[in-house]
Design a protein that fits this description.
762 residues; binds zinc ion; 2 domains; 12% strand; alpha/beta; single chain
Length: 762
């Protein structure tokens, strides 16, 4: 007989009302002391543990808490501090925050996306690092939970292979060497946990969902062999997620006590069918989606558990979410404005853990034991399924009609660009920005007042208009060539469209950590997505009236809207993506009809959405390209389509980007400028392109000289006729003053180079 227990992989750290964010930001502003920061966060952390205890979870994660990011925590506790911060006290919280956010003396460490999520981690830099155990964090949090709440927690640690693979500052062939340096520290951590009485320790190795080489797999084997030998009395749980493991047969034979597999993403069930699961190991089965906010299909989950049980001979199965609940909001209890049909179908972190307990009960006592919950679950799901949200026949017909159609612009790029150049009449090396302009405290405050009903719709609209007008003037004075309206009416580039399109719903408190204290509130996709009326036309047209320079129409692309929303699991993702694309197409055409000559469709999430398994990349790209083209290809040849992307490791996705067939693309690259330019040396990119010429993520104002160097470097490989000059991302988070100063230098740098080039030609 199999025994069942429940577990969790990680709990959201931000708090029901973002108490965590507020505490951190208060400390950064200097409003509260360090000890009060600790008091506030400790209270929250204990509350989070207590909640999981009350729900009844058997294995409660400890050490999943962080003051910023779990990868940064791992780095700092192993002494992996970037060289430029090594003079500072490694134990101090201010050093920790400085690495994440920069300080007077040094720039922040790079930040990048955690696998295929919108969570950003701080990239560890190993150059000149001598690994040493600065602090056994896991032990600290293990003891805290035990002493304060009597919880025998399950410490959660990022495994050595994932940790080193995600770090930079070494050559690929040095991977083994670096892992070897960290393993002794991991051993010590484990031994100390064993002495303190820990029974299970979870090692997260999501890297096993990606395509590792044989050499890397051997390394994994060696590492876990030696960890197991170091602490034979602690049970090691090797945890994977976001994808099924790529080398299943090898992985399940590793010398650990338990293996955690994701049964929601990828194909773990099939792997078990084909290859079985070793009898001497515990299987930790991720059976509730930790990446989504929708209630599990309890009946379906129960039958999955039964299948897993039948197919394996293990003595123990641990029921758990598919990954850490860091990626979903805390609780739906605080939502008061949602339609009950939607609300009943939702399940945030707390509700997911309750689902796990319900399923556990059924696994132990039979499904009769949860009859009432099963019925309630079924009727909530049916209500959503049969609701009006799912009954849009028009969009369904529209999708059918494009099924076998070739989707492309009416004439090829070289011909349309000639027409566009004639119409737009822009100078060589045109200057522009990415879209958003500084959202000052006043802008945000006014929006909050409006949302609360303290000011009227008219007052709010006229405030946005005034702000736009002010910035059109500033852009004119700066001498920019292509202007933007500034996106002052948008809190967030995805939520804004979620609020306007049919098929979406927005929550009040559905916050999820994105990076550091920054949280985002992804909209929900409940049903068929469609478009009723223009969303952005008024703002753009109003702005265009104030200037003779072209003002870009600004939209968020279908891939990004899909990726940054919580899409209901019953809805096929690519269908939703195409529905969003068709809606955007209508918006694009409405902008064109209103006289807008340049339309930018942003796709910052294109890279991040890539599956962990490279075999699935072509399918993903095909769908992305199709959706982008659906949205953009029916405009006139003279209308110029732009797109923008962030954090692109451009080389890997070069072809797909070319396939999008946007006339102009801008890419966020100032932190890795050289590498990106190299890609153009190898390929022959024909279309127009703007490589971010300065970094907007830092308050520093770049000098004209510095910007000129970046431009000149790019012009060594890219023809000046193709090249645009722009910052590397939106300016929303910057202050007004620094923005104006930086843009002024950018425009001047462009002018100097432009004049020099034109003089040469004469
Ligand atoms: N147009 C958006 C902005 O400027 C693009 C943001 C992004 O790339 N994430 O804010
Ligand atoms: Zn960007």
């Amino acid at each position: 007989m199999t025994t069942f227990i429940s577990s969790n992989l990680g709990y959201p750290r931000i708090g029901e009302k973002r108490e965590w964010k507020k505490a951190l930001e208060a400390y950064w502003r200097g409003d509260i002391t360090e000890s009060s920061l600790y008091d506030r966060t400790t209270e929250l952390r204990l509350k989070n543990l207590k909640k999981q205890q009350d729900i009844g979870i058997d294995l409660i994660p400890v050490g999943d808490f962080s003051f910023y990011d779990q990868v940064l925590d791992t780095a700092v506790s192993f002494g992996a501090i970037p060289k430029r911060f090594q003079q500072e006290d490694p134990q101090s919280i201010d050093t920790y925050f400085a690495i994440a956010r920069g300080n007077k003396g040094a720039v922040a460490a790079e930040m990048t996306k955690w696998f295929n999520t919108n969570y950003h981690y701080i990239v560890p830099e190993l150059e000149d690092v001598t690994p040493q155990l600065v602090e056994n964090r896991a032990l600290h949090y293990y003891k805290e939970a035990k002493e304060k709440l009597g919880i025998d927690g399950k410490p959660v640690i990022i495994g050595p292979v994932t940790f080193v693979k995600l770090s930079k500052g070494y050559q690929p062939e040095e991977l083994e060497g670096w892992v070897d340096k960290f393993v002794p520290l991991y051993k010590q951590v484990l031994q100390e946990l064993a002495e303190a009485g820990a029974s299970w320790v979870q090692f997260d190795e999501p890297i096993l969902g990606t395509n590792l080489s044989n050499r890397e797999l051997e390394l994994v084997e060696k590492v876990y062999q030696s960890l197991k030998e170091a602490a034979p009395n602690v049970k090691l749980l090797l945890q994977t997620y976001f994808e099924s493991v790529q080398n299943y047969k090898k992985i399940v034979e590793l010398p650990v006590d338990g293996i955690g597999l994701d049964f929601i993403h990828g194909d773990s069930l099939n792997l078990i069918k084909k290859f079985g699961f070793p009898q001497d190991k515990v299987l930790a089965a991720g059976i509730v989606n930790g990446r989504n906010v929708w209630s599990a299909d309890l009946e379906g989950a129960l039958s999955l558990i039964k299948q897993i049980d039948l197919l394996t001979e293990t003595d123990q199965i641990i029921l758990q979410p598919s990954c850490s609940l860091l990626h979903v909001p805390v609780t739906k209890q605080t939502e008061e404005k949602l339609d009950t049909v939607i609300l009943n179908g939702l399940s945030f972190a707390d509700e997911k853990l309750t689902e796990i307990q319900t399923l556990l009960k059924a696994a132990k006592e039979g499904s009769e034991a949860i009859q009432a919950q099963l019925e309630e679950n079924k009727s909530a799901r049916n209500a959503l399924e049969s609701s009006t949200y799912r009954k849009n026949e028009e969009i369904t017909r529209e999708l059918l009609s494009i099924e076998n159609k070739e989707i492309k612009r009416s004439i090829p790029f070289q011909e349309r660009i000639a027409k566009q150049r004639e119409k737009l009449n822009l100078p060589l090396l045109p200057t522009t920005t990415i879209g958003s302009l500084p959202q000052t405290a006043e802008v945000k405050g006014t929006r909050t007042k409006w949302r609360k009903g303290d000011i009227s719709n008219e007052e709010y609209a006229s405030f946005v208009e005034k702000e736009t007008a002010k910035w059109i003037q500033i852009q004119e004075d700066l001498g920019l060539d292509v202007l933007v309206h500034g996106e002052f009416e948008r809190t967030d580039m995805v939520e804004y469209f979620g609020e306007k399109l049919n098929g979406f719903a927005v929550t009040e408190f559905g916050w999820v950590q994105s990076y550091g204290s920054r949280c985002v509130k992804p909209p929900l996709v409940v049903g068929d997505v469609s478009w009723d009326e223009p969303i952005t036309v008024k703002e753009i047209v109003d702005a265009q009236k104030l200037t003779d320079k072209p003002v870009k129409g600004m939209l968020t692309g279908p891939v990004t809207i899909l990726n940054w929303s919580f899409v209901h699991e019953e809805l096929p993702r690519y269908t939703v993506q195409n529905q969003i694309a068709l809606s955007l197409e209508k918006e694009v055409l409405a902008l064109e009809k209103a006289g807008v000559q340049i339309i930018q469709v942003d796709e910052p999430a294109l890279r991040e959405g890539l599956p962990l398994d490279r075999l699935r990349w072509p399918e993903y790209f095909d769908a992305a390209v199709k959706a982008f083209r659906l949205a953009t290809s029916t405009v006139q040849p003279e209308t110029q389509i732009h797109t923008h992307m962030c954090y692109s490791e451009f080389g890997e996705i070069y072809e797909a980007i070319d396939e999008l067939d946007a006339d102009v693309i801008s890419i966020e690259t100032s932190r890795s400028h050289g590498e990106l330019v190299d890609t153009f040396e190898e390929n022959n990119y024909e279309k127009e392109i703007g490589l971010g010429v300065y970094d907007i993520h830092s308050p520093r104002v770049p000098s004209i000289e510095e910007i000129k160097q970046n431009i000149e470097r790019a012009l060594q490989t890219i023809d000046a006729k193709q090249f645009w000059i722009n910052p590397d991302c939106g300016l929303k988070t910057r202050q007004e003053e620094e923005t104006v100063a930086a843009l002024e230098n950018m425009v001047n740098a462009a002018k100097e180079i432009r004049e020099a080039r034109l003089a040469q030609q004469k």
